Amino acid sequence: MPTTEPFTLDGFVVETAFLGDRAVFALGEGRVAIRDGAHAQDVEAHAGGLLAAVLSADGKALLSSGDDGRMVATDADGATRVLFEKPGKWIDQLAVGPQGAIACAGGRTAWVRLADGTIVDLPHDKAVGGVAFLPKGMRLATATTDKARLSWITAKGAPVDFAWKGAHLGVTVSPDGRFLVTTMQEPALHGWRIDDQQNMRMTGYPVKVKSMSWTAKGRFLATSGAAAAILWPFMAKDGPMGKAPMQLGPRDRLVTRVAAHRSEDVLAIGYDDGMILAVRIADQAEVLLRPPGSSPISALAWDRAGVRLAFGCEDGAAGIVDIR
Amino acid sequence: MSESLPAPIPVTVLTGYLGAGKTTLLNRILTEQHGKKYAVIVNEFGEIGIDNDLVVDTDEEIFEMNNGCICCTVRGDLIRIIEGLMKRKGRFDAVLIETTGLADPAPVAQTFFMDDDVRAKTRLDAIVTVVDALNLIARIEDAPEVEDQIAFADVILLNKVDLVDAEKLAAVRAEIRAINPYAEVIETERCGVDLDKVLDRGAFDLGRILEVEPDFLSGGHVHHDEDVKSISLRAGDMKQPAFFDWINAATQEQGPKIRRMKGIIAFENDPDRYVVQGVHMIVEGDHQRAWKPDEARETRLVFIGRDLDFAALKAGFEACRA
Known about the structure:
The structure holds 2 protein chains of 2 kinds. By secondary structure, chain A is mainly beta. Chain A has no helices and 30 strands. The mean pLDDT of chain A is 96. The longest helix of chain B is centred in the C-terminal third of the chain and has 15 residues, at 240-254. The termini of chain B are far apart. Chain B is an alpha/beta fold. Chain B is globular. In chain B, strand 8, helix 7 (166-179) and strand 9 (184-187) form a beta-alpha-beta unit. The model of chain B is unreliable at 216-223 (pLDDT under 50). Chain B is 28% helix and 28% strand. Chains A and B meet through strand 16 of A and strand 3 and helix 2 of B.
């Protein structure tokens, strides 16, 4: 029987994560809230709004970026460290990669910070909508107008462009490194097989896709943007081409966030009325984790063991669901 | 199920060519005591930046929509910024967008109709265009953007009226009216206007379209061959399916040329006023309220556009008469 420990936080929950046992919540007003049983600490991470956040690759810090032009690491004890700073820029994209590399973007430039603190500039001719690392080989994927781009970070070599007309707003790379998928201004995804740039169109959404999550072993790409979680199959050699997606947790409300379990074929689905379901992909068995009746779910994250789920809403409602 | 939808944040768009007085107006809005906090989106940090307000610098970036419509463009940078600002609601009451002097207002306006997220959380309040009496006529001749900025406006601040004589002022007024017959024109010196006349206008609110009563030109008095002109159409009752078919077709065909469209329609056998408005190919319409007993049931429709086919619009409109 799932149990929930609820919190009321001061502001829009942009992202959540677990640093060990402690849940952290990145808030739109620039703070990071740390919650662990009786332990509650709020840290001023940014001198302005907080626009994006992501768990560090080693799982020990929450990385956040904001309109103060900073990228900040906050650890479980509330200590902060500025990792990167470009005054005056809105840093609204973040991603972590191999070997301690971190990427961020603001306006028309993406930056990669290597583990030794070296910064690599990747200028684009249009705004960078999203950043994501390939799993191996220090390459960064960026989404921008009319294309996605793969850039080498440490090795020499010209960037490779993947053309498709339109505004690409977000990007993800499959865990096996074979596919690149972008979210678009239109309610659609676009994908490419990286080897041969074969195009994949993934359409049919009523609204823009804002949340994407790869299920265990990269079998499916789960997405928000419809009145059910939409899962595109990526097991086959040619990905989802010619295949219909699976729909999990169909309701008459829109899915706003999805978070795949790390090891099991289970997906946590957050809706625009605050409801959360956990759904097993094999038989579509549903477990209600949070009832409807609040503002939209804006953040969802499993802990490392996969037994607790942290969530946050646009109005600051948040909590930890223990499914044991 | 109880749901409380937060009130959409009003957005005012400020346009005007360089030197017209846009920054003066912006500074007035930011410094005067009016009890409101603004998030201000500017193109470059100039001499503004007030502690109490959020100021965001942006590069204007046009997204073309992949829907085959050549005039369906939105401002990608605004979508991104507004999404970011909505994570800080409570820090501000309204949004002000200052465009560059050469900007086409269409993508800015269309962003508020075509992007679902922006549309859900904000409402376009009005497009305010600042022009100056001294230089307007020269600017219209050398910069086509200026005509578009006037064509799109709900409120036109005719600034620096103290710097011209009565004859020149009359010519400038006529020039503005020839392009845009329904915007409210406010004559000012140094942008000295009551801010209530500029802010919270509800110009795109169908419920607040009260009159479409263009100043009709007496004719023959306009000195310039404007590329942007308006056509005002009047009739009594209209046939309902015919009117919708026609206006949808007309806005599809002439959409790229249309800047703004606004109208009040009397449909036969319908006790309610029907109001419409549009930007390029985007048309919105709704029943508004009952015709009052002392009110003439008259259909009025105004198109403002560049190189519009007036004869075709008029013929199509006339064919919908009941």
